[in-house]
Structures are given as C-alpha cells and as structure tokens.
Amino acid sequence: MSDAATNEPCDACGEATTDALARTVRLSVDRANIDTQRLCPECFAEWIRRYEAEMAGGDTTAASDGSDSEIIID
C-alpha cells in the first residue's frame, strides 16, 4: 500500500489538491450520475455558499429591484 497522496487538479480552479483536502460533489437524478466535481477547499466553500443562496431563493448576483428575469413561460 502506498502512502503517497495524489495531487489531481480542482475542477473549478485547476489548482492541484491532495486527496486528503479534496471534496467530491456528485449530482445524481434517479440514481443516474449526472455530474461529479473534485473541488479544493476554497472552491468547495464557494459551491456551498452558492448552493445555500440558490436553495434559499436568493441569488447574490441577482438584481435587487425584485424583478425575476429568469422566468420562463411556455
């Protein structure tokens, strides 16, 4: 068994990240893997902030006038 840690790049910023520090985010729908990302601690923290903002209904980059420009009506 090897004690050498691998240094693969973060999928968001490209910086080398050791296995001990890397976080893996997986998106699955109906048990089918849609996306998997390997993230460094900083990019993972940003991913969590963005996820929390979007799940709370507030986009930190959205206009503050209350308009919703992303509404799609079929």
From TrEMBL:
Which superkingdom does the taxonomy of this entry point to? Archaea
Instruction: Give the InterPro entries listed for this entry.
Output: DUF7569 (IPR055991)
Q: Output the Pfam families linked to this UniProt entry.
A: DUF7569 (PF24453)
Q: In its UniProt entry, what is this protein called?
A: Small CPxCG-related zinc finger protein
Could you tell me which species this protein originates from?
Halorubrum vacuolatum (Natronobacterium vacuolatum)
